[in-house]
Each structure stands twice: as C-alpha cells, then as structure tokens.
Amino acid sequence: MEDGFGASSTSPFLTESLELAMEVEHENSRPSFFSCAFDSQNGGRMFSAESYLASGSLKRVLLRLDPSPNDYEENTVELFGFQWVTEMALVESCGFLFGLLRMQMLNKSWCSYICFMVLISFTSGQAAHLHSEAEKIRHQCLKFLHYVKVFIFRYLEPPKVENDGVLHAYEELEAQLPSVLVEELHALTVNIDHLCELPSNVLAAFTIQNQAKVFPPSWHLLHLHLDIKWLVLEVLHVLGEKLKKQVVYANHFINLTGENLTNISLFEKHCGNLISDLIRLAINKYPKVRPSEALTSSHYSCNCIKELWILLIQLLDHRNKGSNTECFWSLVNTTLKNIFEQPSTSENMSGFETVQCKDPLSFSWWVMSHLAPLYQFDRNGNLNEKKQKESNWKFVEELLKKSTDAQTGVLEEHLRMHLQCCLTLCSFWDLNLSIVTILWDYYCKNLNSCFTVPWLGLKDLANVSKTSLSMLELVKRCCCEQQVPSLYNSSNSYFIFLSILARIMKEENNGVHPWKQIKGRIYSKFHRKRMQELTEVGLQNFFSLFLMLAIVVETEDIVSRVLDLLDFLTPSSITTARRALIWRGHFAFLLIYVEKNMDISALAEKISNAFREKAKEFLVTKNNYTQRQNLWTLLSTYIDGAQEVFETSSYLSLSEEKLLNDGFTMLLPACRGAELSMVLNFLQVVLARLRSVHERVSRGPQLGNAAPAQIPLVAKEHHLAVASALWRNFFPYLKSQRMSQTPPSPQLADTAAGFTLLALDIPSKALSDLQPQPVLSMMRLFGWDDMVWPQLVSRYLSHLIENSSLCEDFSSMGYTSYEALTVRSWFRCVLQMFLDQPSGALAKTDAERTVGKAYMEQLTEMTRLIFKLSEVENILLKANVGQSVFKQDPKNALVQFIKAVGRTYSGLQTLPEKSAMVAKTLEYWGDVLKYVKPYLKAKGPPEGLQLTYWIIGCLVKFCAPILATSKAQQLLFRIVDCLLLPHSVLQQDKELPVALLSAIQESLPLYLQGLSFICCQSQTQGAYLNQLLGSIIRHYFGRFLPSSPTAPSAGQHPLLSALGSSITAPQLLHLRKTTLHVIRENYLQFKGHAPPPRLASVLAFILEVLQGTQSFELCDIDLVLPAVLKCLLLVNELQVKKISTDIVQYMVEGCQAGSGGEHATQLTSVFRQFIQDYTAVYDHRVFSILETVAVLDQTLVTSLIPTITQSLKDSEHKQGLGRNAAQREAYKRLLSHLAEAGQNEIQKLENETDL
Questions:
Q1: Residue at a domain's end among 1101, 1117, 1150
Q2: Looking at the structure, do residues 1106 and 1211 belong to the same domain, yes or no?
Q3: Backbone phi, then psi, for 358, in 5-degree steps?
Q4: Are 374 and 313 in contact (CB under 8 A)?
Q5: For the chain, is the Cβ count within 10 Å smaller at the N or the C terminus?
Q6: 78 in helix, strand or coil?
Q7: Would you call 85 helix, strand, or coil by DSSP?
Q8: How would residue 851 be classed by pLDDT, with cut points 50, 70 and 90?
C-alpha cells in the first residue's frame, strides 16, 4: 500500500515530503483548527500556528503523508469520553462515532448560550466557564475528525477476497467502511447549517477582536462549523487518495433513496455548497462597501474565512492537475453566474442558490479582485509573489462586457470600481489583449464624455489640463506602478483604462509586442468625421490616449499619426480653447521627446511657426479686448509649454532653440502688465537654465554622471544657438525699456542681470553693438548709466556685485573703475529713492510708505553688498567704521560712508596718495547735482528735498578737505550755485516753497561748517570762497530771522546751529567772524536815525551767539559792540535797549574774565571812539550808558575819563558858548560813580570853573 503511494508521487513531491517529514519529526502535533485568536504581528505570520496552512496540515494531505504523524500512536484512543481501540474503532463503530459527533453539535452548551445570550449578561466567571466548555466540545469534535483522517491513511485497506471467497466478519465491515464513511459524511453535511443560515448572534462572533482571551460559545460554534466544512473535504480527499481514486458508492443511501451518491459527487457538491456559502457571506457584507473603498474592503469576515478560501484554492487546483475535476475558478464562476442569472423557477435548486444580490456585477468584480491575490499564498500560508498564478480571464471578459454594455447603463461611479478591479487583476495575471479590445470599443465611442462622479464634488470636475506638464503628468501616472485603491478619487474610468492599456503594452506576448496587434484597431477609430466630432473634453481624452502610447511604445510613429489626425480639423471650427488644448498637447509630446532624449526640431518648428503668426496678430490687435484675451490664451499656453521644455531638458541639446523664434520680437512690445511679467519670467527661466546647463557641460562628465561622451560637444553647439536666439529676439526690447517713462518692473532688472551673466559665460553670441566686451557694455547700459531708473539699477547690481567671476573678468580686462562706478550708482540710487513720488501734499507720508517697502528692502540689500566691495571695505577699515553700518537704513549708511571717505583722506600723508584719493572720491560721487536735479526742478517731493540737502550737506561738511582741493572746487561751486544760491534765493522778495525752505533750514549748518573749513584751507580761491560764504549767510540770515524775539519760529536759526556745533577753532572763528561781519554790514546799518528792520531779533541772535560759545573773541568787540552801542544810544524801544544792554554787559564781563589785556584794550578803544563820535550830540545818553558800564567795570570807564573830558571840552569849544553847565552836571554824575579818580576829575573841572 505504501509503495503504491510512493510510486505515484513525482520527484518534487517526494523532495517536499522528505523536507516536511524532517520538520515534524520532533514535534508534538496538535489537531489543526481555524483560529483568528492570534497576534498577526508576532513573527510576521499571516495565520495562527495551529491553522491548517501554518501547521502543515494541508501540505501533508496534498503530499499524501500521514496527517498527524505523532498522534494516535497508542493502542487506544479517547473519543467523546470513551476509550476505543485505535486500529478498529472506526470500522466497528463508524455510525455510532458519527452519531456522537452530531450529538456534540447539538450539545446543550451551544443551545443554552444561543437561546439566552440576548436575555442575560454573564459574569466573568460564567463567561470563562462557558468558554472552557465550548472549547472542550470543539476539541472533541476536531479530534474525532482528525482521527478519521489518520485512520483512513494508516489502517484502511481495500477489500480482500480469499480463495474460497468467504470474508471474515471484521473484513466485511472493513470492506464496507468507505461506503459507510461517504454516507456518514453526507449525513454530517446535511445536519450542519449553511454558515449564512446560522443565528445572527452566532454570526456576530466574526466581529470579536482577535486579541480576546475568553471567547463566547458562539465563537467556538462558528469556527467549529468552518472546521467541519473543511475537514469533510480533507477526509473525502484522503479517502479518494487512499483508494487510488476509485469511486466509492454509498450503497445503503442509494438503496434507500434511489439517488446516486459517491465520494466524488459528495466532494463536488459539498465543495460547491461551501463556495456558495462563502459567497453568501460576502454578499451580506457587500452593501456596506462603497465603490471607492472596494479594493481596501475585503470580503473576509475574519482571517479564518481568508484561510478557508486559500485552502479551497490549493486543494481544488491540486485535484484539477491530476484529474478532470473542476478547478477553483470554475466553481467560483458557476456560483457567480447563478447570481447573475436569477432563475425563474427554484426547481432542483436550493433556497440559497436563488439568493439575489443588489448589484451582482459590481459584487462579482469585488470578489474577483480579492480572490486573485490569494494565489500568492503557498501551501504553508506564506506570501510568495513569484508563485505561478492561475488566471480567470474568460470570466472577467464576460464581466467587462457587461460593465461596458450600453444597455446595462453602468454609472461612472461603478465603472471606476470595475476597472480598478480589472487593473488589479492585470497585476496578478498574464497578458490579455481581449480586455483591451473590449474596453477600447467602449471608450472610443465615449471620448467626449467627462467620466465624472457628481457626488465627488469639484475635485472631480477638472476634465481639461491647464498646462502641458500637468497633462503629461496625468498620463505618466497611468504608465507607472500606482496605488490602485487611490485611483477612484484621483482618476476617472478613462484614465484607469489607460493604466490597463499601458500595463499591457509594456509586456510581450510570445515575442510579439502587443502594440503591433492593437494599433490597427485604435487608429481605425479616428477618421476625419470622428476627429471633427471631438469636443474639448474629447480632444483632451484623445491626447491622453496618444500621449500614453507615445510614452510606452513607438514615440515618433505615434506623434506623426497624431499630427496627421489633427490636420483633419478645419481651422474655422477650432475654438480658442480647443486650439490652446492642441498646443498643450504638442508641448506634452515635446516633453516626451525631451525625456527620451530625442531631437525636437521638426515638432518645435511646427508649433513655433503657429506661435509666430499669433504673436503677429497680437501686435496689431490693440483695442479689441476680446480678441486680445483669446490670443493671449494661446500665447500664454505657448510660453508655459516652452518653459516646461527648457526646465525638463537635461542638456538643452535637442534643438530647444527652435522654440525661441522671432515671434517674441513682436510679442514683447505688445505685452502689458501681467502679460509682460509672464514673458519676462519665462525669459529668466531660460537664461538661468541655459547658464546652469552650460556650466555643467563645460565642466565635463562628473562622477556618477551617465551622460554619453558625445553630449558635451553637441550640447555646446545648441547652447550657442539658444544664446544667439535670446540675444536676437529678446534683448533689443529689454534695452529699449531701460529708460521708460515709468519705473520698470523688477523683472526687467532680473532679466538684464541674466543677460549680463550670459554674456560672461558665452560672450561670443552677444549682439555686435555690445562687442568686444559685452559684459562691460551691459554694465554701462543697466548699471552705470545715470539716466536709468534707480529701481532698475539697484536690483540689477544687487544680482552682480557678489559675482566673483564678474570681478575677475573686469580685472582681466584691466578695468579698475568697476567698484567705483558701482558705488556711484549706489550713491545715485539712494539719492533718487523718492524720484517717482508726487511733489504735492499727498506725498507727505512716512518714508517707508512713500518709497515703498520693496524698494527700501532692495536698497538695503544693495547697501549690504556695496559694503562688501574691496574698495569700500578698505575705506571703512582705515576710517575705523564698524561693519554693522550696512545694517542701518541706506541713507544713514551712505552718510557713514561719506564720513569714512573724509576721515580716510585726512589720514593720508603724501601728496600722491591724497591726489589719488580725490580722484577716486570724485568718481564715487559722479555728477551728484544731476542726480538731484529732478527734485530741484519739481520743488519736491519734500522727502526728496530733505534727502538731497542732507546728503550733499554731509558731503560738504565731512569731505571738506577734499572739496578744498583744486580738483574738487568746481563741484563745490556748482553745489553752492544749485542748492544754496540759486536764482530764486537771490530774489529776497520772493517766497521760497515751504518744502525747499525746510530742507535748507535743516541742512544749512552742514554747508556753513564745511565751507568755513574750506575757506580756511583754500589757498587759490580764498577770497571768492569767503565771498560765497558771506553771500550764503547774508541771504539765509534774514530768511530764517523771526520778526521779533518773541515771535514763533520753525526752530532754531540754522546759523546758530552751525556756530554752536563742535567744529575746530579755526573753522568756528572764521564762521563766527564772517557771520558777525555780514550782520553788521547788512542788518545793523541805520538809515539816518531810522533803525534797521527786525532790530530786536538781530540783537537777540547776536546775544545767542555770544552766549552759546565758550570763548570770547576780539572780532566780537570790533564787529558787534560799536553797532550795539549805537542801538543803545539811538533806539528807545525797550526790547532793543534791554537786549543791547545784555550784549554790552556780556562783552564787558567777558573782557574782565579773559586773560591778558588785548581784549580790554580793544574794548577801551571801542568805547573811546563811541565817546568821541556821540558825546557832542548825545552827551546825556552817552553819560547814561557809561554810568551803566561803570557799574560793570569801573576801571574801564575810569580809563576813559581823559577822553570824555576832552570830548566835553571839544563840544563846548565847537558850540562857542562857553562852558555847558548841563553837560558838566551830567558828566559829574558819571564821575561820582568812579571813586577817587572820578572825584579828582570833578575837582579839576570845578577848578577850571573857578578860573
């Protein structure tokens, strides 16, 4: 018997059997059973260790090995609580044992629980007891059925016939055992319910969590049903194998019923019922499954159901290989067909078979997609993706025909799910062209459909791609491995069809590419009429199909055919939207060419020629808004597509220059606002991409770069062509816009910088008018030209200042003014930051709002970069200026730089160094007055005027030593003429604008201090400079002088600010002397006896000057005191008298405090002259003034006694009337205040009287 088994086994089976025998040699095997009570994360197992798969139970059955090699080895075995002889029990008591099994199935423990579980709640102790009882019953049942398998394998013998033909009684029973087993197994299958017919509270056990430790009896009962249903099949299979596939008839059953029953028919019927049972469970679960979740929601109620499906697959396909029995798919197909057919009569059909499914088609797809992956599991329950899988394409083709049948009317929401399932099956099964044919017959008729699902909302409404790249990316997703479950929401059914088509096109069918077999069917559907019937959506679907085909099969052939098909469209019928879509399709094909490293010349020329024509129309269309919008839709499509090509191309070696034709020369002048912005953005992308790729190619092949060796040479030629097209078709417009009437777009500066760097990398292709040094020419055009908008210059230079290659290029050509001219541009950009602001009252806002945050940020960045230039760093270092300066706002940073320049110059020792520094500084400044001329001409805006006078004032003050040189004096004279002494200022009766006057008032001290220093230093123009200084003081002293000392003013007089600042003594003295001289000559001159206007204010100013300085100078006495004494003498206004008295007091006390006698001598001289001039006429007033002075300085007046006496006598002599008693009395009152000297003089006068 055993030899017979071995002889029938093939060598692979024998090897597998030996391996299995070695594995179980030392194991204490337990009866296998279904269990989902295990942790699937433990050891990565898919099924429990006691399962039929993981325990090797199935494998041993299929290999015809002992089902339980380590069990039932004793002479007796306990079954259902009784002891039995192991080798005889089944022969002698088969019916009785199966009766005990049926009794256990109806055990009161099951019944009591099932009946009362809804009415009561068990305590934990009761639950544990019930669990234990149920588990014990289940174990007894399983033990018996496993014993049956072992008994058949070990002890069942075919009937033996003796010579006399008489059998022993036991032998007769043994001979009848196979027939009895078939009958008992049939009775068992009849007595156990269908799974779906179990009470609902039993079926609810499927939902119990796997991690539970104590299970209710319902769980054990449910899983016992699964065990029995499976073990019946195992027993029948083992029986058939033991009897060498002889047919066993159930004789007693046949005699009673007249129905035929064999082991084979029972196996097939039970197997069919079991599959139907499992399908019914899936049907009950299906209503809860959404179409979008079909692939993620399996039909397994628990893991044991999944194992049962796998067991059926393994067993049925194993039996099918050795005989003509039906395979697994055949039984499943039959069951599913019954669901579809829904027979009108139930004759010869069980009630179960007539069960209806709400959507049998979708259900069939769902079940099929989840059963196919089960073929990946081997006999041990391990996942083996390389395992050969049996397909079921014939049935799926029938499903597909139903899904695409117009009469069936399958909705898109279901069709997506069906095709998702089909795509899943494609990944498991071999190639099948029939499904492509079926699907294409459906979709070619529905290309104009949107394939949307209404309840998905807006995300499902985007049917037409907005860019060529998005169009291509959508199609490329169809050509790569995808997460199929996510396709429902991300793709429509048409794109899922394309995914199926792409997957099949990638495979070969017996050495023949599928495309060869299918392309005729696809091409034939597109004829002239069909092409003209395509809507915009239809065209999108048309392109999607051929883009996918171009990716996976013959690209050039596909593109050529598409172009031919598009020629079927009549131009008059093509709307703007459809033409834009066609252009996007062209560019999508171009992107495929680029990705496949194919030359795009022919295809690029075709689309670029169309672009040229539309650009020409756009240029001549100015007033027709609708036509402009339509044209721009096409032009922007072209720009987007061309940009995507340049961004995608790895080496720009595929004739990309064909896309940059002269259409852009017509397009650019016609663009406005956002249109121009888009074109310039495209241009920047192309420039940056060209430079990046050219640099990479120039470096040569790098480590890890798989580029072909010939690429660099070919690429460089194409790079030259791209550069030439850019210069020829884009740069002329760029050049024309640098001096536009309004501030240009920042993109213009960015693009100009890109061209400059392109000229640096590929100088030979720059335009002829930029040669021979294109980089220098570009800098002169956009960076150093004083006529270019500062916004453009600052942004342009910010891109280039830090570029080391640019610096090296200027150094190599020996151009040393690069940094100086860049600093000059920065100087201008800061000065002109308010250039485009209005000059009216509306401009009076804070600086950031007026200038604009963007430009301020740009200037700040430019300032940061300027302070990194080597020349600037050197100046700051010599001037000990910290590097934190550039972190300030640009205006303050510029002032700090001006200070650093002046400080650096002052630190130089030799004449050549100073001369070079003067030349360099003048180069930094340039024509500074030209920069501010717009402010002066427009008299605004106020911020611009303030900035102008402040910055140039700082220039005059802090760089005064440089302006004092002969090289720089002409600039100084121009500054004075333009800013301080223009024609309008010279007209004293003409009011100046408030903004201008305010700016001058705030900054005038800077100019006065600087000019004062220059006057002291200059040796060639000293007289003229002093004259200028005097003129400035003369004109502005009166303009800023209030009408009276108590009148409100706009702030401190700028002359006071200039005289009160901390400047060196020579400067202060010169400025003070000049100021007082101008005041004396112009503001303290009496017209006859009439005092000058605003005399009190003039005197108050003088008093503030004297009080605000630390020292007392001789010039104060000479220039101020005579005029003040005269005011004190001739003016009776109390305010004038008081201020004049204060001035005299200050001077007298100042002479007393001063060291040496020079001041006193000078003071005495002034008083002496005052006495001589006015005593004769104003004797009483003179004596009164002297009385006041005597209180302050008696010695001073005492020294003047001889002069006074002589003047008295001269007056009397001149009058010719003898002694003037009144005068002498007044004089005596004065002398009475002069102590002894005064008494002596009185005595002398009296003696003269007595005589």
A1: 1150
A2: no
A3: -60, -40
A4: yes
A5: C
A6: strand
A7: strand
A8: low
Q: Tokens 């070079």 map to which residue?
A: 916
> Does 367 lie in the same domain as 440?
no
For residue range 593-637, list pLDDT tens digits in order: 999 999 999 999 999 999 999 999 999 987 888 999 999 999 999
Residue 442 contacts residue 402 (beta carbons within 8 Å): no
CB atoms within 10 A of CB 919: 14
Facing residues of 82 across strands?
79
Residues 317 and 443 both lie in one domain:
no
Residues 1168 and 1095 occupy one common structural domain: no
Q: What's the chain's length in residues?
A: 1251
Query: Counting runs of H as helices and runs of E as strands, what totals does the chain give?
Result: 58, 2
Q: Are residues 1118 and 1181 in the same domain?
A: no
Name 781's bridge partners. none
Task: Please report the sign of the dihedral spanned by the C-alpha atoms of residue 237, residue 239, residue 241, residue 246.
Answer: negative
Integer Cα distance of 134 and 217 in angstroms: 5
Q: Look at residue 171 and tell me whether its pLDDT is greater than 70.
A: yes
Q: How many domains does the chain have?
A: 4
pLDDT category at 43 given cuts 50, 70, 90 is low
Q: Does 44 share its domain with 191?
A: yes
Q: Which two tokens stand for residue 623?
A: 């007033």
User: Which one of 220-229, 258-267, 288-297, 577-586 scores highest in mean pLDDT?
Assistant: 577-586
CB 839 within 8 A of CB 939: yes
Residue 1068 forms part of a structural domain: no
Q: In this structure, what token pair is assigned to residue 456?
A: 């998905």
What span, in angstroms and rounded, lies between the C-alpha atoms of 1120 and 1135? 18
Exposed, middle or buried, 700 (CB in 10 Å: 0-12/13-18/19+)? exposed
143/705 Cα distance (integer angstroms): 67
The answer on 588 and 509 residing in a single domain is yes
Write the CB contacts of 662 (distance below 8 Å, at least 6 apart in sequence): 612, 728, 729
- Asked if 885 contacts 787 with a C-beta cutoff of 8 angstroms, the reply is no
The total of other beta-carbon atoms located within 10 Å of residue 1150's CB is 17
Contact 306, 378 (CB under 8 A): no
Residue 943 and residue 822 in contact, taking contact as beta carbons nearer than 8 Å? no
Q: Which tokens is 1230 given?
A: 């004065």
Contact indicator for 436, 545 with CB cutoff of 8 Å = no
Structure-token match 């032009």, residue found: 635
792 falls within a domain:
no
Q: Are 1235 and 1192 in contact (CB under 8 A)?
A: no
For residue 428, which phi and psi values (nearest 5 degrees)? -105, -30
Write the CB contacts of 323 (distance below 8 Å, at least 6 apart in sequence): 245
Helix (H) / strand (E) containing 77: strand 76-79
Say whether the peptide bond before residue 732 is cis (omega within 30 degrees of 0): no
Q: Is 377 helix (H, G, I), strand (E, B) or coil?
A: strand
Handedness of CA 383, 384, 390, 392 (dihedral sign): positive
Residues of the domain holding 1107: 1088-1150
**Other Cβ atoms closer than 10 A to 1154:** 16
Q: Is 249 helix (H, G, I), strand (E, B) or coil?
A: strand
Question: Using CB atoms within 10 A of its CB, is residue 777 exposed (0-12), middle (13-18) or buried (19+)?
Answer: middle
- Dist CA 599 CA 656 (whole Å): 9
* Nearby residues of 660 by Cβ (< 8 Å), 6 or more positions away: 642, 686, 722, 725, 726, 729, 730
Which of the four pLDDT bands, split at 50, 70 and 90, describes residue 655?
A: very high
Please state, in angstroms and rounded to a whole number, the distance separating the CA atoms of residues 824 and 898. Answer: 12
Query: What sign has the CA pseudo-torsion 343, 345, 346, 349?
Result: negative
